[in-house]
Here is the input.
Amino acid sequence: MITFRNASKWFGAHRVLNRIDLEIATGEVVVICGPSGAGKTTLLRTINGLESVQEGEVSVNGMSLADSKTNLAALRADIGMVFQHLNLYPHLTALENVMLAPRKVRKLGKNEARARAIQCLTDVGLEQKCNVYPSQLSGGEQQRVAIARALAMTPKIMLLDEPTSALDPELVKDVLDAVMTLARAGMTMVIVTHQMMFAQHVANRAVFMDEGQIVEVAPPVELVANPKQERTRKFMGQILYGTSPEQDAVHKEAGRLV
Here is the structure.
């Protein structure tokens, strides 16, 4: 479904993606991990054409994103993305936030869009928050509204960029629970995250990146327990054992969910 072939990208003189080769099958859940600046978010953004590569090729459903014949607007309509910065409209309720894209992009009628939005909010456990504004929601609830908003477009692919990075440890569970529900339903997903305990139970494969390159690809359990590359071993040691009480608490919360 998603293919990278020798894909490279530069920002000025800085090479942020370096000869990426990766294939993600329909229904597969792939976790991307790595240190800050490794190119994880850029890789995610190339999948729906928010960033382009200067060398190689990125294709989705057999369509090259660099091909002038590819309808990027139509392609993006089938790809849901949840950014680190959620970009919820503060003047709209949770329900109105979720209804907006189906009405504007999918051209659904108001009643159909409303029914779909209510169902999506219910799917992420927020059926009681339909008429609440973003400022009245917790961080975890806002994150789940963003997931519901992406789901309302009935995407074929979901991209999530650090879905729990800005959350307090006690808010992590509900978001991870919503993501796990999608994975169990067979949604094709690419998730940038450091929650490796969670990744072991939700993902088919984990990809470790550093300095714009794919260093190692393996089943999450194997990548955590028995990484082959020294750089991977060092990174896993840092994130699994934590560098602060807050980081340890987040991993414990992910473990309790699993």
